[in-house]
Amino acid sequence: MDRKTCVELWSFVLVALLVCIPSAMAEDAGTEPPHLDWDQPVWCVKLGDKTLRVQCDQATRRCLVAPDTQAGGQPLRRLQECTWGRQADFDQARDLGWTMVDAVAEAPPGWYRDEKGRVFQVTFDLLKRFYLGAGWQPGFALAHEEADLARVRFDLGFEASWLSAGDRDRHAIRGLEGFVVIDDLEAQALLFAYDLSHASARPVLRLTTFFGQPRRHDLFMDIGWGMRLLDLHVHPHRAEGIIGLEFGELHAAWDIWQSADLYDHLRLEAGLAAEGMWDVDSDEARYFLTPQSRLEARFCLDRKGFHHLRGDIRWAMPIRLDRAFGQTRSRAGFRAGYELIFAAVNDQPLTFVVEAGLDYRDDLARIEADPWEVQIITGLRLSFWAPARLDEDLPALAGR
What we know:
Number of helices: 2
Shape: elongated
Helix content: under 10%
Number of domains: 2
CATH topology of the largest domain: Porin
Number of strands: 24
CATH class of the largest domain: Mainly Beta
Distance between the termini: 55 Å
């Protein structure tokens, strides 16, 4: 794929997104029939050959009445269990002057049912998914003032995150995650990663002040940890023939700030990794013990899970363990990205991804390898099995 084709293709994608996103987010100006409430009991009544789903409010003497089938006669999907009632009771309520309002059947949290009875997912949890993606990843080598625009990226990954409210923990795993870039076959692959975030129930420091009425101020420190196994890098900074492998990494983490459901955070990590690097052409092998640190931010900007911001600043100091024992090198980087859900295919969210980063490393095995690289990534991802984004805040604690 040449440079002109790449630019034209992604110009078309960006224009399509600018057209689709505002229309998808615009509110429907028409009058919408009321919906039955998923959290309230539903009464099912058989009237001739039809079944109605009824939900009544005693205080207002008003009942919402919804058909049990779609407009084409197909049975409704994703309904809660109902209690069967008698037609005589329904007729009696109507004769007593109760208002009967045509409505739409209920839908589970995170789903929506339209006026035709069709149900579809409208919120998504992108911390629980398997994704496939494709996009454009030009590379910029600062030292040589070069730009490689004809680079196409394919990526995939699995991630899962769940909240243990009783333990005040959020667990997160990632696996089988990686990408490959064509035409230079740069690649990265991660076998497994685990992270634990914790919201402390006990303050690490209690400060009492005696200016006027005595007051106590609690300071909490939320400490977690994480690990990675087998993180492979091929051609870092496009130095041909260079293969790097992180055998394993272990780190402690301090969540400087967390949201009430531990979904969003500002997190500081410090850890140690064991690594190796090989130059395929010269058969040279190097081994490192690498202290490293990272400041990571993750924010979901809306409760429906449509807008995600991620970023990190990282630093590492590889220490040689082979012939040049004790020699140190440096690695640093910055990355920021935005992911937007703009459509769904069979209730599987389709997202637009844009990311930018700057990397520095002087630990590459070849002198001609450029220590600096600027990366820009734009692309689309199709995520599978992402459940609805639900409110699951931790129980409130005094002092927090």
